[in-house]
Amino acid sequence: MSFEKYSKKHKTLMQLLRRLREIEEQCYVLIDCRTDLETDLILNRHGFNPEHKETNTLAKKIENLETMMDQLDKDRREIYSKLNKLRTSTESKYSPVNRKLLVGMTEGSLTNKEKFHMSNYLFRTLSNRSSDETVKGAEFILMLVNTGKYNWSEAQEMLNTMNDSGLVYEVRNDIYRSVERSGMRNVEGTESV
Predict the structure, then answer these.
(1) Residue 86 lies in a domain
(2) Both 109 and 84 in a single domain?
(3) I need a labelling partner for 122 at 20 to 30 A (CA). Which of 69, 83, 144, 168 fits?
(4) Do 144 and 162 form a contact (C-beta atoms < 8 A)?
(5) Does a structural domain hold residue 97?
(6) Does 98 fall in a domain?
(7) SS3 of 151, please?
(8) Residue 155's closest CA among 166, 145, 165, 168?
(9) Lowest model confidence (mean pLDDT) among 8-17, 136-145, 163-172
(10) Are 79 and 9 within one domain?
(11) Total domains present in the chain
């Protein structure tokens, strides 16, 4: 592959990943807004309404937020499709597991085993982004839901399964760390002594 082709593909990849990150950040904001509005709506229905908000207005705002989230979901799927096209157009080799996962994320469904592998991969990705190699449980769950392969309860159940199976452990409230990372750090620490 020539340098010009590589440079062009790298630039395209960076643009797609930047847009994907923007979509994730927008989703975080919309989820926070929706949670606040749903709380106000529940309180309003039970007679607690100090700001005199109308139930219909709150429900309409929630509906608008969900429409915006659906649009972000479409944008995310479009980016995954473009990433898949970019991947298939390159001459480099990828592992068959990751290729199958990418195809499953963009086009088809995943088996339970593949979902578990993908969850582990996403957890490690989040862990690598963090300076102290910890992952916030809520962020991990949101990332699973954003793949479009999990609903909220399945994502929470996957985190619980990973915790119960000993792949991850809870450092403190809703903060997790990979067990293999902790083991590697301890081994590395003992080797240097």
Answers:
(1) yes
(2) no
(3) 69
(4) no
(5) no
(6) no
(7) coil
(8) 145
(9) 8-17
(10) yes
(11) 2
Instruction: Tell me the sheet residues that pair with 168.
Output: 178
- SS3 assignment, position 152: helix
Closest CA to 23 of 84, 79, 67, 64: 79
Residue the block writes with tokens 């403190």: 172
Q: Both 7 and 86 in a single domain?
A: yes
Domain that holds residue 158: 104-192
Whole-number Å distance between alpha carbons of 119 and 116: 5
CB 13 within 8 A of CB 86: yes
Residues 142 and 85 in one domain: no
Which has the higher per-residue pLDDT, 40 or 158?
158
Residue 161 gets which letter from DSSP? H
Q: Which of 119, 162, 161 is nearest to 142 (CA)?
A: 119
The one-letter amino acid at 21 = R
Cα 173 to chain centroid distance, Å, stands at 19
pTM attached to this predicted model: 0.44
Rounded Cα distance, 32 and 49, in Å: 20
Q: State the CATH number of the domain containing residue 149.
A: 1.10.10.10
Structure tokens at 167: 């792949």
**Shared domain check, 176 and 119:** yes
